[in-house]
Amino acid sequence: MRDIEKDTASRVVEELDKRFDPHAYERAWQRRWSESGIFRAEAPSTRRSFCIMIPPPNVTGRLHVGHALQTALQDLLTRWRRMSGDNALWLPGTDHAGISTQLMVERQLAAEGTDRRTLGRERFLERMWAWKRQYHSNIREQLDLLGASCDWSRERFTLDAGLSAAVREEFVRLHGEGLIHRGEYLVNWSPALGTAISDLEVESKTVQGKLYHIAYPVGDVEGTREVVVATTRPETMLGDTAIAFHPDDERYRHLLGKAAVLPLVGRRLPFVADPAVERDFGTGLVKLTPFHDANDFEIARRHGLPGISVIDQQGRMTAAAGPDFAGLDRFAARAKVVERLGRAGLLRKVEDHVHNVGHSQRTGEPVELLVSMQWFCDMSGMAAQALAAQREGRLRLVPETWERTWEHWLETIRPWCISRQLWWGHQIPAWYTEDGRCFVARSVEEAAAAAGTDRLTQDPDVLDTWFSSGLWPFSTLGWPERTVDYETFYPTSVLITGHDILFFWVARMVMLGLHFTGEVPFATVHLTGLVRDAEGVKMSKTRGNAVDPISLVEEYGADAVRFTLTSLDSPGRDVPINPEQIAGYRAFGNKIWNAARFALGRLAAQPPADAARVQPELNPAGLAAPERWILSRLSRLAAEVNDRFGAFRFDEACHKLYHFFWGELCDWYIELAKPALSGEAPRPRAGEVLLTVLDRSLRLLHPVMPFLTEEVWQRLPGHEAIHPETICLAPYPQREERWEDAEVEAGMEVLQQVVTRVRGLRAELGLPPKAPLRLYLDTAGVASAGGPSGAGEANFLAEHLHLIGVLCRVESVVAGTPPAGTAVVRDLVAGVEVALAAAARGDAGTGSAPGGGGALGAGERERLAREIQKLDDEIARAEQRLANQEFLAKAPPAVVAGGRARLAELRERRERLRASLDAGG
User: Fold this and answer.
1) Which of 97, 172, 102 is nearest to 464 (CA)?
2) In 44-179, which ranges are E strands?
3) Peptide bond into 44 cis (omega under 30)
4) Are strands 812-815 and 773-778 parallel, antiparallel or unpaired?
């Protein structure tokens, strides 16, 4: 076992600083953890493996808040499973991000007055690697600031030698299986990027455009002199090679076999009939531009029609568009074509038209559909395997609402264009001889042996980034070799990523994983929502609402940022982040800090012989009710948190941790423990219970707030008995059924309600904290109404009158009703009638202690009247709901029963208050 620095152990005896400052310890702990090697996984191992792969951030700059969300969730799972005894591996790495990263460096070059072609491929790639080295270190530093417990000894980069070899193996195998081929086809082209992009990289946007109705002369065919064709892109008409109509459209059947004349060009355009044409759109006629429209391309193939490229890869018109248009930008050409058609008298109508246009996700520009020589991969067989894995339960999507989208996409999958006209990335492992023959191989030597010559030229294109990152779950573990890491950790356990890359990345990993390994690469995919601002608006730099997670860490501390993001992760929902929430969870950290300071300070005052220590095992026998209660609540918390973590309901787990720590531990148990720890009212082993509860609470919270929990846990006397080095490796708390005590929990619940109501009465009356008061508790109602359970709760209250007095800050507590004639303030809560009386007589108006000759003061009468009116309103709502037959038919029986019990309680409370009001005359 590796030791954390020895100076850490000596800090157990040090006092916690009065001021809560996360920056005083967060970086220090991350450094100690990293240097100690405690996050390094074992291979091989006899323990159960847990493996999660980081979705590799692009080497393009700083992490965004979405990365911070996923980092917090992945680290939570990894720490939880590590503490639960698993051999946990969180493998880090970065993605070369071909298009994005090359675009960044090309912008740098443009600012320097040069470009990649001037530099040449070799020098340009040197610049790319320099960029990678600079920003990789930034990403590692940011992950450290967030508390990531990655195994950095296994870090990977998608252009590493090992991963590059895996990509070449992937390409060669798929090509050998006939699934990869090269050919001319219509592809999405980004003029700004100068490369083909996949269908998934095209974002459809609704735009306000125009629909142009253009007359195409026909001559005279049975009285038809012209046909009118509607189009949103008149510039592409220069590449028309035919006009199509639906075979069942009687308006145009007589034109089959005839031809029209292309305006402005004079080319003959034959009429063809094809079922793909929509009869109800426009005029029912479609101009066919095969090399610039996907539907036209398919129709042209079916009818043996030629294609003409009139737009080039820079988005300019080609020579084939004619001398009047060649060289023009595509949008300038559109305006000129419209102007020429108008002058020729062939523009019949122009109308506003809302339609969808494909835009590049990277640059935001409209993409062009161009015919280009590219490499394609047939994914249909792999898609069928991925569909089967999900339908058979071997792959689980969380939330399940994504399953329908998953199925639709895989059922309609098209060939994947995997080649990119870039220089940064995995160069395609295909070599060409001087006479044009192509050889796909793992190396140039292998290609030369197959070709019989070393006079070869490698294909200049690179592979789509997702082609390499699709191998990430197993290439990072050594595939295609069956390494020790591969045998130990594959298939991995879970993937956490954003739903926006479900098909870019997740589906491709599943398809490629099944194809090459025969196994689903991960059992579960937890899809997070998008992080938005407090108003629910998507964050972006252009809107000015983007949040830098590292700035948040610097302001609030990493633990507060992590807790905020984790507590907001609810399946199927986006994550609205508000700095006020982060400040609130920083205050939560401050609450924990102060609670620990109080406990350690009080216990340090005990004689050394009596000093309490954390107990690995604690028998509840012989403990007083407050200690049995907090242990019972802690056991239930452990069960609930483990269950919620396992169900990926991190939000619910965080809320339970928050309410236990802030409410049950700090607001209730520590207050209950003060008399015992001060010696005022000693109770058996109260100090040991407090330290043990602190220990286990900190361990439960550790996966969410690792820094604070380690800093405080190291100060707990006896923590070494749990683990000698660090909370990171201490056992994660589990349910302790022998601690659970339903009776004491029921009694404490009534006690809490009574105390809360008495405090509320004091606040409503404006009574100062030191006002001398006597509290009367009449438990006859709870004893008679609740049967054996109620009797137990009544006895519980009777046995703990002193604690009730301490918590309510009254001079005395009396079981029973006040003597006749005593001026009191009354209320009913949980079947218990509470009555507050003054130790000295005086007016019971607002702001004064109750009292005075048995009569209610004006202020008290007004308060009672207001309470009764509130109860009248609440009772009316409850009665209306329970009279609703539809509600009674659909609601679960337990809900209906609970509603009726609540109504009875409200009515009883109203009657008690009315009686008090009447008696106080």
Assistant:
1) 97
2) 49-53, 87-91, 93-94, 156-157
3) yes
4) parallel
Residue 13 has a pLDDT of 38
Tokens 């019989």 locate to 452
Nearest to 713 by CA among 599, 878, 853, 815: 599
| Distance from C-alpha of 891 to C-alpha of 897, rounded to nearest angstrom | 10
Burial (Cβ within 10 Å: 0-12, 13-18, ≥19) of residue 353: middle
Question: Going edge to edge, which strands form the sheet with 492-498?
Answer: 87-91, 49-53, 492-498, 522-528, 396-398
One-character DSSP codes across 191-218: TTTTEEE-GGGEEEEEEEEEEEEEEEEE
- Specify the 3-state DSSP secondary structure of 642: helix
Distance in angstroms (rounded) separating the CA atoms of residues 775 and 818: 9
Residue 245 has pLDDT above 90, yes or no: yes
**Residue 117 three-state SS:** helix
Predicted local confidence at residue 842, as pLDDT: 41
Sign of CA dihedral 555, 560, 566, 572: negative
For residue 110, pLDDT beyond 80: yes
Cis peptide leading into residue 893 (ω within 30°) = no
- For the four alpha carbons of 67, 73, 79 and 85, in that order, the dihedral sign comes to negative
Neighbour tally for 865: CB within 10 Å: 13
Q: Where residue 860 falls among pLDDT bands split at 50, 70, 90? A: low
The DSSP secondary structure of 282-347, one letter per residue, reads TTSEEEE-TTS-HHHHHHHHHHT------B-TTSBB-GGG-TTTTT-BHHHHHHHHHHHHHHTT-E
Distance CA 172, CA 162 (A): 16
Q: What is the rounded CA–CA span in Å between residue 853 and residue 844?
A: 10
Alpha-carbon radius of gyration of the chain: 37
pLDDT for the residue numbered 409: 93
Q: Which of 293-307, 377-391, 843-857 has the lowest mean pLDDT?
A: 843-857
Look at 293-302, 500-509, 521-530, 881-890 and tell me which has the smallest mean pLDDT: 881-890
In tens, the pLDDT along 131-190 reads 898 888 888 999 999 999 999 999 999 999 999 999 999 999 999 999 999 998 888 998
C-alpha torsion 389→394→395→397, nearest 10:
120
Position 583, amino acid: A
Per-residue pLDDT, 851 = 46
3-state SS of 776-828 is EEECHHHHHHCHHHHHHHHHHHHHCHHHHHHHHCCCEEEECCCCCCCCEEEEE
Mean pLDDT (the chain) is 89
Helix (H, G, I), strand (E, B) or coil at 395: coil
Average pLDDT over residues 759-763: 86
Rounded CA-CA distance 448/445 in Å is 5
| Distance (Å, whole) CA 297 – CA 759 | 78
Does residue 254 contact residue 235 with C-beta atoms inside 8 Å? no
Higher-scoring residue by pLDDT: 890, 306: 306
Rounded to two decimals, the pTM is: 0.85
- Report how far residue 167's alpha carbon sits from residue 169's, in angstroms, rounded to the nearest whole number: 5
The residues, ordered by sequence, that sit 6+ positions from 888 with a Cβ below 8 Å of its Cβ are 882, 896
* Residue 225: count of CB within 10 angstroms of its CB: 10
Q: Which pLDDT band, with edges at 50, 70 and 90, does 5 fall under?
A: very low
pLDDT tens, position by position, 278-303:
988 878 999 999 999 989 999 999 99
Distance CA 162, CA 156 (A): 9
The identity of residue 527, as a single letter, is L
- Average pLDDT (418-424) is 93
Taking every pair of Cα atoms in the chain, the longest distance, rounded to a whole number of angstroms, is 117
The pair of three-digit structure tokens given for residue 428, joined into one six-digit string: 């395609």
Burial (CB < 10 A; 0-12, 13-18, 19+), residue 219, is exposed
Nearest to 514 by CA among 383, 410, 380: 383
